[in-house]
Amino acid sequence: MGSLIKEAAEQVWSCSCQQFIRGTMAMAEEGSLSPGTPAAAAAPPPPPEKNELMPSLAFQVVLLRVRRLKDAYGGILSGEDGTMKELLQELMEALISWLSSNPPESWIGHGAQAQLDIHFLLEIARLGGFDITASAQELLRRAAAENGVEEGWAANAARHAVHQVLLQHQQ
What we know:
mainly alpha, two-stranded antiparallel sheet, 6 helices
């Protein structure tokens, strides 16, 4: 009986991950940084410095939604068993898996944007206390090959972008 409950819970979580990803991508397509808030009503992003890239809007939305999930449910699911951390790890890995088969339009022919976006996701995971590097390796390899440049710049730019997005959307 316990294994049936565990299997059902895993299926529910898998469905939730897919809904989260679809919802996040839909919000990004609408140009919204938060649910129900059009981009025009949201605080405008700071103007990028000359030659400064920012992560795609979809990944900025991921950061804000993961943060909201953690804030809303972290107290409930923060037991010693690490449930919240495990769920967020699985969510980020599901996102990487989804991106492997559904690369965003902004990545087509733009390996630099892909590198920055992937490193931004890695930075979100790092801030959450988990590591998705193994899951993201193939995406990083493809983006670096397309861009033909080392990826150190992308990691630095991603760290900077996380701080910019969080500062912009402090509650």
